[in-house]
Amino acid sequence: MGVSAIGTVGSGKVSLWESGHHHDAMATRTLGFWLYMLSDAMIFAGLFAAYGVLGHHYNAAGGPTAKDIVRPLYAYGETLAVFTSVLAYGGTMVALKHGNRAGVLSGLGVALLLGAVFIGMEVNEFARLMSHGIVPQRSGYLSAFFALVITHGIHMVFGLLWMLTMLFQVGFHGFTDKVVYRLLNLKIFWQFQALIWVFVFTFVYMRGAL
Amino acid sequence: MSHPTPNPLEHPEVQLASGSAYVFSYAISAFLMALALAFVTRVILVPSALIGLAVVAGIAVVAQLLLLFRLDFSETQIWSTVSFLLVVPLFVIAIGLSIWMFDSLDARTMISGLMH
Question: Which of A87, A42, A125, A52 lies closest to B18 in space, CA to CA?
């Protein structure tokens, strides 16, 4: 943005942008990523809409319904794993604020470990369901259920890969501009997973158990 | 959007981090989800468990938006807050209208006879 442009609008000259204006690249990048996450959330809106529509008993096609497949207490365990991982990432951000590299690395490590616990629990749950013949292609309801829950799970896996990458970047490069804004974007991404999980837990698992 | 800082750690978005807010958000969210579990398992009896679930989910989401995401109308966060508020109606339309349209589909089409 180190240039200026003078354009002609109507009869007068107007300045379209000013030279010397300091552009906050970090804020622009985090806002851009935030908008990306809002559009990503629209994917979940579509999946929740499909789940709401296909939640009617006749979409189970005579197969298992939500009540038959959810285990409320187990789902609460998954909830604690997600929330605690997000809390650990919060610790990472507090350490970053104070320029504490060891704190950032250990926070990332704990968040990564707890995120992996969540994925392990989810894979274990899917294995249990599939061993009973409860698979996505069984009914419209199960297609919607697995599509929604697996989409969230895939997001979690990508978050874990991102954390692994940041462990190396913080370790090797320290707190450069790029590393810091990537940590900020990962914070947004990881916290979003907790937010989406609130809806998955209450409207899929808890409502399903009613 | 106008915070040029030579040291990235001094950036306002980095300085937003708050240990107490994160712990508070965690405690509230974990408690509310436990409450949802208690509604469903009938440990706590409420007139309508579904409404109870919607209420606890709503409070948990607001708590996370305020304490985790730190959304507010400060100079640092206003763009994020406003963009989020503008997306909320899209969620409501996408989910609400889809469910409303299809909720009584079987009663309003010939599919009805096939379903029962």
Answer: A87
Is B59 inside any structural domain?
yes
Whole-prediction pTM: 0.89
Asked, for residue B49, whether it belongs to a domain, the answer is yes
- A12 occurs within a structural domain: no
pLDDT tens digits, A137-171: 999 999 999 999 999 999 999 999 999 999 999 99
* Residue B39 included in any domain: yes
Does the beta-carbon distance from A176 to B8 stay under 8 Å?
yes
Span A93-101, average pLDDT: 97
**B91·A41 Cβ contact <8 A:** yes
The number of distinct structural domains making up chain B is: 1
CA distance A115 to chain B (A): 15
Instruction: Look up the ipTM and state it.
Output: 0.87
pLDDT at A153: 97
- What range does the domain containing B64 cover? 17-69
Contact A210, B50 (CB under 8 A): yes
The answer to the question of residue A201 being in a domain is yes
Say yes or no: B77 contacts chain A, CB-CB below 8 A. no
| pLDDT tens, position by position, B64-88 | 999 999 999 999 999 999 999 999 9
For residue B68, which residues of chain A lie inside 8 Å, CB to CB? 86, 90, 191, 194-195
Where in A10-139 does DSSP place strands (E)?
A: 12-17
What is the total count of domains within chain A? 1
Is residue B26 classed exposed, middle or buried when 0-12, 13-18 and 19+ CB atoms within 10 A define those classes? buried
